[in-house]
Amino acid sequence: MNTSTILLLLLSILIAAGVSFYQYIYTRAQGANWRSKVKSRSKVTLLLAFLRFFSLFGLLLLLINPIITRKNSEIIKTPLPIVIDNSASIADLKANKSAMELLDKLKNNSALAEKFDLQTYQFDTDFLPSDTIDFKGKQSNIDVVAKNLKNIYKNQTFPTVLISDGNQTSGEDYVFGFNPSNKVYPLVVGDTTTYLDIKITQLNVNKYAFHKNKFPVEVFLNYAGTKAINTSFKISQGNSLLNEQTVAFSPNKKSAVLNVLLPADRVGLQIFKATITSKEQEKNTYNNTKNFAVEIIDQKTEVALIASTSHPDLGAIKRSIETNVQRKVTILKPNDVKSLVDYNVLILYQPTVEFKAVFEQNLNAKINTWIITGNDTDFNFLNQNQKLFAFKMSGQKEDYLASYDNQFNLFALDNIGFEQLPPLENPFGTITANGNVNTLLSSTIRNIAVNQPLFTFAENQGVRSAYLFGENIWKWRADNYVNKKNFTDFDIFLDKTIQYLASNNARKSLVVNHERFYNSGEGIEITAQYFNKNYELDEKARLTIAVTNTKTKQVKNYDLLKTTNAFQVNLDGLDAGNYKFTVKELNSNSSYSSGFEVLDFDIEKQFVNPDWNKLNQLATQTQGKAYLPNQLDTLIKQLLDDESYKAVQKTIVKKSPLVDWAWLLVLLALSLAAEWFIRKYNGML
Which residues of 467-503 are buried (b: 16+ CB within 10 A; e: fewer)? Predict the structure, then answer.
């Protein structure tokens, strides 16, 4: 308190004492000769004087409202998080008992408890308190330990004891995830003896492949051992052996990368098995096999190339498109077309009035169409039978060069040197777009832009179309061969054009995204979006999913939960096997049905030893040290002797105004009430 507050308090005491003395002592003494019971009331008078003093002084205290300062001291210990690995690999390495013993000894050590604030945690996929440790975690993510410790103990310097085998199966590299200024002391559990072991470390493959093509598989193999051996690597499907080769390992060659091409012979989800074996005895053979799956897509496209005249373009287009074995081109005359139902794409080459029946049939069939114009095209007929472009053409022929548009984004296509290709012929005139178009190539005449498209794409109500305004595209393919000694660039250009036209982009009200296969232990996530009749995302939709195991017929039902812009469900914990599922929107009864397969693959069973090198690297990175279980006492001594971790005495000063003290108001009320009651009882009112 400052001096002025102390003086005010002293003045308040004098005022309260003076008023009480005057009202109860001095006044009563003056009237003693006419009050016969003054002596008998002397104690009551003193009590009343005290109560009056207390009430007045309390009221004056509230008016002065001094600041009350309180000091509390406490000892702040350095935190010591003890983190134990709860993943299944600890049990597989038969180190679960040893790990629990280490944890119990550390947390029950009185010397450590006196110096540090001991906190115990566990981790597998997530970072949690060590309430229930069962060593059944499906994956190990040591990086999540680093991230959580940084958040819990911000701006603090502390050591960490990590009880783990160091084998991480998910997350980022944990070596550089921990704060380098905070020491980490790994306690490495598991048998560190080196056993002979060959394993498939990683297998990379695309999730999808096209029918009748070949798809690549990249395999990473590892070897642990002290002698040279030969191994046999195989890829099979059912009883069929698709690939077999011998791989040699030695103490100097402990890894190998294989690249294998497999045929995509059957449509649908195909399951394959990769296996590596040797004549040597291994402690762990589970990591010798890895299953993988690829969905083979039938991309077969039937293309009708309709033309009323003969032209070299027809042969060039057919040969180019059919370089993809999934495409088949049939050249027809307009009068030979009886039905369009067997075709996925129509190429109408220089339409004339003979094409009238084809256009009329396609009004109902709504097949995606590529129109190519030229010198023999009837543009008056085109003006009457399509609405996307208006043509005002003359009888004069003109050569049009191509100019590539870098902003084109309907599909990925590199500039194959379109500007250097020979010109295309088309009648001179004006071509005006009546809707939105996406132009790949614009027209130029003698390097002067004419602001007209040469090759352009459009989409209207889910129907796609393409327009090429010029004939003699065969010269482009020939020029490509002259310059590159192959037709590859041109053929890719036409293949992507056909692929765009062969796709159906019709919008569905219920869109569900999922994988066709998952590894057991992975998160199985399915997302869905529901659109109303205006194709707006309906956030009030009610989506459910029913998942059925095709073997056991067991059905599980879940609700999809709303996220930022979709609905989502996690189906973690499903056993290996085939599953069918149906997603339903309850308000509209819209539904989507499909399936997926959970592959039998336990990543936690891939290890025969703890990763001592990685944990030792972590310890070195943080200036700590890695220990084995039999060195626990040395670790405890290291922690106790480390002078950089000392308890800190912290003084907490709390200041609060007296008016915030509610008990003073209560005492004032009691004092005034007691004074009134005593005066009433003794007849002094």
Answer: bbbbbbbbbbbbebeeeeeebebbbbbbbebbbbbbe
Does the pLDDT of residue 112 top 60, yes or no? yes
For residue 413, give the 3-state DSSP assignment: coil
CA angle at 293 for the pair 290 and 299, rounded to the nearest 5°: 155
Instruction: Quote the tokens at residue 363.
Output: 């009004």
- The neighbour count for residue 230, using CB atoms within 10 Å, is 12
- Spell out the residues 6+ positions from residue 373 whose beta carbon is closer than 8 angstroms to its own: 350, 351, 379, 382, 426, 467, 468, 469, 470, 471
165-191 as b/e, with b when 16 or more CB fall inside 10 Å?
bbbbbbbeebbebbbeebbbbbbbbbe
Question: What value does the mean pLDDT of the chain take?
Answer: 88
In this predicted model, what pLDDT tens digit does every residue of 374-419 receive, in sequence order? 999 999 999 999 989 999 999 899 999 999 998 888 888 889 999 9
Mean pLDDT check: name the lowest of 84-93, 158-167, 241-250, 653-662: 653-662
518 Cβ contact partners less than 8 Å away, ≥ 6 residues apart = 524, 596, 597, 598, 599
DSSP 553-567: --EEEEEPEE-SSSE
pLDDT for 449-465, tens place per residue? 888 999 999 988 778 99
Total number of residues shown for the chain: 685
- Lowest-confidence pick of 280-289, 300-309, 470-479: 280-289
CA distances from 518 to 292, 325, 574, 575, 600 (A): 9, 30, 10, 11, 9
Question: 249 pairs with which residues across the strands?
Answer: 229
pLDDT band at 685 (very low <50, low <70, confident <90, very high): low
Q: Which long-range contacts (CB under 8 A, 24 or more apart) does 634-639 make?
A: 635/161, 635/185, 635/187, 636/106, 636/109, 636/111, 636/112, 638/185, 639/80, 639/112, 639/115, 639/116, 639/159, 639/161, 639/185
Exposure b/e, 34-73, CB count within 10 A at least 16 = b: eeeeeeeeeebbeebbebbbbbbbbebbbeeebeeeeeee
Find the Cα–Cα–Cα–Cα dihedral 221, 224, 227, 228, rounded to 10°: 0
Give residue 535's pLDDT: 64
